[in-house]
Amino acid sequence: MATPTQTPTTAPEEPDPFYYDYNTVQTVGMTLATILFLLGILIIISKKVKCRKADSRSESPTCKSCKSELPSSAPGGGGV
């Protein structure tokens, strides 16, 4: 007579809900991180370029908002 520990039980195979393909997760994560990093750099560069163009033409609301953000371009701030 076989004991329960000797006979294998045949439970229906269900997919594990916590199984992750870590290679895909890593690839997607690195891709999103790269896109967000480049987007952040692009935003920083675009704000500086917009301020320089506005400074060379005239005083505009865009430039005034940049002056409040960039201390080096404030009046008497020792800008370049």
Write down the overall mean pLDDT. 74
Termini separation (Å)?
92 Å
Outline type: rod-shaped
Bin the helical content: 55-70%
Q: H/E order of the elements?
A: HH
The helix/strand class is mainly alpha
Residue runs with pLDDT of under 50 for 5 or more positions: none
Cα-atom radius of gyration: 30 Å
Number of helices: 2
- What share of the residues does DSSP label as strand, in percent? under 5%
Biggest β-sheet strands, sense, barrel: none
How many β-strand stretches? Answer: 0
GO molecular function: sodium channel regulator activity
Subcellular location: Cell membrane
GO biological process, one term: sodium ion transport
GO cellular component, one term: plasma membrane
Short description:
By secondary structure, this protein is mainly α.
Structure write-up:
- The chain has 80 residues and is an all-alpha fold.
- The longest helix is centred in the middle third of the chain and has 36 residues, at 22-57.
- The protein contains two helices and no strands.
- It starts with 21 loop residues before the first helix and ends in an 11-residue tail after the last helix.
- The chain has helices at residues 22-57, 61-69.
- The chain crosses the membrane at residues 25-45.
- One of its GO terms (cellular component) is plasma membrane.
Protein topology:
Blueprint: H1 22-57, H2 61-69
Helix pairs in contact: 1-2
